[in-house]
Amino acid sequence: MIEFRSVTKTYPDGTRAVATFDLVIPPRETTVFVGSSGCGKTTLLRMINRMIDPTSGSILIDGEDTASLEPVRLRRRIGYVMQNSGLLPHRKVIDNVATVPVLNGVPKAEARARALELLDTVGLDRSLASKYPRQLSGGQQQRVGVARGLAADPNILLMDEPFGAVDPIVRTELQDETIRLQRELGKTVVFVTHDIDEAFRLGHQIVILQRGGHIAQKGSPKEILANPANDFVAEFVGADRGKRALHLESIDGHEVVVSADGTPAGVLQR
Ligand SMILES: Nc1ncnc2c1ncn2[C@@H]1O[C@H](COP(=O)(O)OP(=O)(O)OP(=O)(O)O)[C@@H](O)[C@H]1O
Which residues belong to CATH 3.40.50.300 in the chain? Predict the structure, then answer.
């Protein structure tokens, strides 16, 4: 469990990116921070692994205040996946994936063997292991980024707009993979996006943010759609425009979200 307690962040130039933020992120589920540009999503995410330190308040992981933990060690036990994969261009795919375990002291051969398994996990052919990132498609690079995020077998995976730069079809595939991985591996995923469709697809808990990290509403996709807290949320989720005249259909035990014209929009995650 990750807990934000009265967390604020003011940057040195005086920008108040996050004002008093409180949230509980349950374990082994996906929580999505969604909101428009500049509302504080990335700042919130990076405070979890101390890439950014809060100005005040505290963040607890399984009851332990992260302020008391050594930032580099904390970062190595939390997976982090970013938009442009963040792969090291001059290192082969396998070494990109093995980097953090090697830094953590895992013998190189063992880390590389595990990296190959992780390529399987994220649906990449092992033949890509000896290639350099630039020889891969954008979607493949993002998969490598996810494999790297999982390499130290972290309980927590932070994902910052990881699929923002790939085309819509690949994006959907990557979302499906993320749902599968989260379910199979039981990770606590914290995902940042400005795309409400992506948020609803992936999130068990959705946190809709406004400027200053202000929580406009939090809840399951169903709760938010059924009962938007205010006009801002209603507009943000498109509930007021009929765009999301969605309903649920139960198919083979899964709750499928279906739009007014009968197009399936996704499966509700719990
Ligand atoms: N290093 C910094 N110094 C000063 N202000 C910053 C810094 N980083 C972010 N900010 C400001 O803090 C606010 C929140 O930024 P943040 O990057 O967390 O938002 P975001 O919701 O992730 O935006 P985006 O979707 O565009 O990435 C913005 O006003 C931003 O300009």
Answer: 2-238
Q: Which of 239, 251, 229 is nearest to 196 (CA)?
A: 239
- pLDDT in the model for residue 96: 96
Structure tokens at 137: 């498609």
Q: For ligand 1, atom 13, which residue shows the shortest CA distance?
A: 17
- Other C-beta atoms closer than 10 Å to the C-beta of 161 total 19
CB atoms within 10 A of CB 266: 20
Cβ of residue 99 lying under 6 Å from some atom of ligand 1: no
- In the three-class reduction of DSSP (H, G, I as helix; E, B as strand; rest coil), residue 53 is classed as coil
CB 50, CB 66: distance < 8 Å: yes
User: Can you tell me the distance from the alpha carbon of 149 to that of 78, in angstroms, rounded to the nearest whole number?
Assistant: 8
Q: Give dist(CA 68, CA 57) in Å, integer.
A: 13
The pLDDT, as a whole number, for residue 218 is 97
Give one word for 101, left, alpha or beta, with left for phi > 0 and alpha for psi -120 to 50. alpha
Report CA-CA distances (Å) from 104 to 113, 148, 152: 15, 13, 8
Q: For ligand 1, is residue 39 a contact (CB within 6 Å)?
A: yes
Ligand 1 near 91 CB (within 6 A):
no
What are the respective helix, strand and coil percentages of the chain, to the nearest 5? 40, 25, 35
ipTM score: 0.97
Are 160 and 192 spatial neighbours (Cβ–Cβ below 8 Å)? yes
Do 123 and 113 touch, CB atoms closer than 8 A? no
Helix (H) / strand (E) element for 5: namely strand 2-10
Give pTM, 2 decimals: 0.87
The CATH class of the 2-238 domain is alpha beta
